[in-house]
Write a structure and sequence with these properties.
single chain, mainly alpha, Helix Hairpins, 3 strands, 4% strand, binds zinc ion, Zf-RING_7, CT398_CC_hairpin, C4-type zinc ribbon domain-containing protein, coiled coil
Length: 259
């Protein structure tokens, strides 16, 4: 293997790790924003219930004042009834009183319905309260965890960056330029050849190239995948007997085979 290639493999591990860490750090604020939105929604729901309770109380106050109005109307008409001189007047006042009493009955029924609604709203209020408290607790917990994760990721990031600088200094300029160019275009620049294929793009290598890649005495040239252009390497450990014994078939396939 070309001496630079081994270092490029290390460099790629660092670069992949750096990307993973920065992705992880970038994902955290989004996750926290989701928990913030949930807590906000729970607060809004609670506020909605509180508003509904206030409205219901207002409805009931109006019903009570309407009942009082009807009662004073009845009292007034009764006085007029006492002073009535004709049967027609008596009938008219009695009709008015009966009408007001019916109105009071309707208002009282409506008041009962309103009280039932208030009871339901009180239960809803309790549930909304609990949900809001819980959402706030979850948010605080996630915030604390995210802060911890970011602190941890930052220190790992610094470490990896430091190691990356060291390994880059050890690599030849040409190899480094090539690596940077491929990595910029493809995301990764180095790919393992496995089973005569480029493990990054899955393209089959021609037999001669495959043999060249596996040639242990080849320390001169760096081979690239003809399809994706990545630098290829071959891990000789794959030729070791214990590695060969490793099953490459899927679990499902092995179950089927053992039936
Ligand atoms: Zn490839």
């Amino acid at each position: 293997m070309h001496p630079d290639l081994e270092k490029l493999m290390v460099l790629q591990r660092h670069d992949v790790e750096l990307k993973r860490l920065s992705d992880e750090m970038a994902a955290l604020p989004k996750m926290i924003a989701e928990y913030e939105a949930k807590a906000k929604a729970a607060e809004a729901q609670k506020a909605g219930v509180v508003e509904a309770i206030a409205k219901e109380e207002m409805v009931r106050r109006r019903q009570e004042s309407d009942i009082k109005d009807q009662q004073s109307k009845i009292a007034k008409v009764r006085k007029q009834l006492d002073m009535a001189t004709t049967t027609a007047q008596v009938a008219a006042f009695e009709h008015e009183i009966a009408f007001a009493q019916a109105e009071i009955g309707k208002l009282e029924d409506a008041e009962l319905e309103s009280m039932e609604r208030s009871e339901m709203l009180a239960a809803k209020n309790m549930a909304a309260d609990e949900a809001a408290v819980l959402a706030e607790k979850v948010l605080e917990r996630e915030r604390a965890q995210a802060a911890e994760m970011i602190a941890r990721a930052k220190s790992t990031l610094e470490l990896v960056q430091h190691e990356r600088t060291i390994v880059r200094a050890e690599i030849g300029e040409d190899a480094l330029t090539l690596y940077d160019r491929i990595a910029k275009a493809k995301g990764t620049a180095v790919s393992e050849g496995v089973d005569q294929k480029c493990s990054a793009c899955q393209m089959l290598l021609r037999p001669q190239r495959w043999n060249d890649l596996r040639d242990r005495d080849n320390h001169e040239t760096m081979m690239t995948c003809e399809s994706c252009g990545r630098l290829l390497y071959y891990d000789p450990a794959r030729d070791a007997p214990q590695k060969k014994a490793v099953r490459s078939e899927s679990i499902a396939a092995s179950i089927v085979r053992s039936l």
